[in-house]
Design goal:
Elements lengths: L68 E11 L8 E10 L3 E9 L5 E2 L13 E8 L8 E8 L5 E8 L3 E4 L9 E11 L2 E14 L2 E13 L6 E3 L9 E11 L2 E9 L5 E9 L2 E5 L9 E11 L2 E9 L3 E9 L2 E4 L8 E10 L2 E8 L2 E7 L4 E3 L11 E11 L2 E9 L11 E7 L4 E4 L5
Antiparallel strand pairs: 1-2, 2-3, 3-4, 5-6, 6-7, 7-8, 9-10, 10-11, 11-12, 13-14, 14-15, 15-16, 17-18, 18-19, 19-20, 21-22, 22-23, 23-24, 25-26, 26-27, 27-28
Amino acid sequence: MFLTRSVPAGLPVLAAALLLCAPATTAIAGPVPASPGTATPAATATAGLADPATAPRPGFATPSAGFHDDLFGSDSCDALNNGSPSTFTCEATGWWFSGAIAPLVVSWNQGDIWGWRGVVPEPSRNNQVTVPNEVSCGSAGLAPTCLIVGLHYDNVRYETQFAELCYLSCGIVNSTSPPGSTWSSLQDVSCASTTFCMSVGLAGTSRKIGRRIVYASHATAYTWTGGSALTRLTVPAPAHSRASELAGVSCPTTTQCMTVGNYTNASGKSLTYSALWSGGSWTLQSALNSRGQASTDFQDISCPTTTQCMAVGDSTGPGSHGFAEEWTGGTWQASATPAENGAALTGVSCPTSAVCVASGVHGNAGLIEAWNGTSWSVQPSPGTKAPWSGDVLLHVSCVTPAECAAVGYRFSPAVRRAKRTYRTLAEVWDGTTWQVNATPNP
């Protein structure tokens, strides 16, 4: 999950994916460098895991020594039941840049190394930018069944949503922008089984007023039920909203999903937004907003049961602070987190109704907080070595209270933001400590 959640609703979320990795708590809008590339979509990916030393590198660009970025934005971990000593497995997605932006998908089994998933199909031949925003996997047997969602550029001006299903190999799932939209993006996905997932995001139009381009957006949601395409749902918008987006979704069952996001009110302020999908119909939920802050933005949500959810995000102006809200008894209520200025919470995972783990960033350091059913506390997380001593943990996924993996990226704080390069980062929790795992970079 990227920090695109804090971009005002309606602004295409990859306007500056390369600058998104700054240690600030919100994304930065700006143009993506356009570079020539020749994508050749693969029909299927290499089956199973590949040796990082010999596997085809994802994407189609040649790495450049001068400017090269690799990062993870999301992961999904599940119990592993294939006769091996490992008890859980994870899939991590992200992107890498070197002349073009290409998808990055790796797999990991407990006690093993993170390895390439193989060749990931590109959505179109014209595509020079493919960004998997999120991944969610159904229960894992011999191998996990995972749905990846995100965005790609089918032309030089606007992004288009995409979805991809991976089992032993990966293939494109049909997904198009809603009618009347000129751009769209899928922000999150949650799979309650190997044949049901819900994905959410935003879509909209743009028009030029003078020298400005004005974007108008609306929240979107889709279901996938085992076929070759996503099915679009009609999502209710908050009253008097000028723009809206859904940033997170969690489905505890195949018939219920809770979504969270943000909307822009009549005065231009960014506020929280939540909607419950149950039995095929939607109901708006009244989420809270941080007092005294200019904006309150949800980033992620996790629902361990049909009656309980935990959502996290960041509030800004003045400063930036992470926050959490718990949905229980049919209402949202504040769940106080440690008061840390310059912090943001971008991911959350609740393996049980009494345990949640949140990931994010505090200054130049990765941030992990744990909830024990009553209160939140900061968990010590290992820093990475110089020159990559800056850390951001964008997402976390837990199978049990003793089995979690958080992913993100490393950077060099000494290098100016505009010239930084980033490397993938994964940390694993064994119930006692967090440890950094070696991860591949293209």
